[in-house]
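Comment thread on ticket #2218

A.B. wrote:
> Attaching the input chain for the structure job we discussed in standup.
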Amino acid sequence: MKNQYLKIEPVGGIGQIGSNMTLVQGESDTILIDAGILFPYEDFFDIDYLIPNLTSIPTPSHLVITHGHEDHIGAVFHIIKQFPNIKVLASPFTAALIRKKLEFNHAPYPITEYRHFDQLSFKDFTIDPIHVNHSIPETHGLLIRDYKEEFGLFFISDFKIDYKTIYERPFDFEKLIKLSKNLKRKILLVDSTNITSNTLNTPSETEIIPVMDEIFGSTNKRIFITCFSSNIHRLMTFINLSKKYGRKIVPHGRSMISYLNTANELGMIPDFDSVVKMAETVTPNQENITVLLSGCQGDFRGTFRRFCMGEDSTFKPRSDDLVLLSSKAIPGNEKKISLLLNKLAEIGIKIITSQEKMIHVSGHPGRNDLLHLYEKFNPTDIVPIHGETSFIRSHIEFIKKSFPSAVPHYFLNFDSLNIDKDFKLRIEQGIKQDPVIIHGKHLVLEKEKISERRKLACNGSVFISLKVSKSLTDVEKISFTFQGLPTLITGNDDKFRRFLENYFVQISFKDLNKTSEELRIAIRKYFDQILGYKPQTFIHIL
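C.D. wrote:
> Ran it. Output below, let me know if you need it in another format.
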């Protein structure tokens, strides 16, 4: 539209937690903020992840990354594949993570680094990175302003407020207030992750330290800790306490090693070489080591799961071990984590979780933290983002009750927030699109194939090959294979063979397609009578 100044359209990340990607369009500029992946809530039978559908969005010139979590950088590979001329901007630590991911996938690509004091200039607007606190270093909110400095939009999808932090600077409210104080219209797009939490003020990362200090001082045995590998500040606490108590710290698992090495390469971890040792350089059963296990969500291939199940090739659980869960279960993962803890309990291992002691704090704001941000930024409009649909609705109600001077706005993925040149705001409902399923070597897996996988996984399969005579009257050879069926079937295949031989007497092979389908139906009925369900059946006639 001629009168339109700016259009904000999320293509992922609202109504769900993950797949964060937001399109910002001006008259001359089109940029993306973040490029994340979504891990499926339901069982998609071992697919890797989902990404937004990129085929329907206009070509962006730039991709600006706010921080290095997978739900914000995991789809960068797909972005540069879809838009090969795009310029990618990220902080130094985040850029290093992206480069490693791209190099691992044999797709190196130039990443331009920005710092918290830089200003990113475009034709229609400027973007000022605002340093915020979160559970990964170098997280930024993005303040988008017009050149007349009358309009501002503060995009802050992940943050907490930590005035006590010893690992990074606190939330840079001073810069945010200075740059926004004269703006006539101020729109806040803001994190909704913890809106339903009973914790009103998210604790500081430093509040974990004395609790962990007490735990580390209570044993000289092996300590195993699982947490998010990207939480470098948490890992630095473990390293510092290991050094204090004469321990060697051992990162175990690909992601844990990768994140720690990246932080070390950028000079973020003092005394790294004297404290941190790789698993192959230590004696697994020696006392006084701290082992950091990746896979804190109980992932099937994760290191934490392998250790708990006694399947890890290096470290086997012992009854005198101490295991700490310094993380929170992502919704949907509670059961599999509980099963792993039960395995450890069977051995008699002492387990400490955040329910017993403060060994984990969130990286997202409680309701009082949100209110503190509202009061500092003083927005005219607030748009909840970064959360499930129920979180967005709850956030709307919280704004109405706690900060009535701002107008709350509700929108989801593919809706658009339109700002006119006179800075009037309107929401337009968009056409929803299903995410794209990615599996294997970054290949798209069609949604209907998931149904096929489900049937194969749940019902098993029967594969039959028939060699038919040239006259198409007799079957000369029968071979069949069962997959995923009980021993009742696999151990009694003579009965099935007799069924086939009797069936062949009744049919003709003149029309192979018709005969194949009739045979498939008959076989499924045969097994249904025995099993109570119909396995997937595949017939090949030679």
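A.B. wrote:
> Thanks. Noting for the ticket: The radius of gyration is 28 Å.
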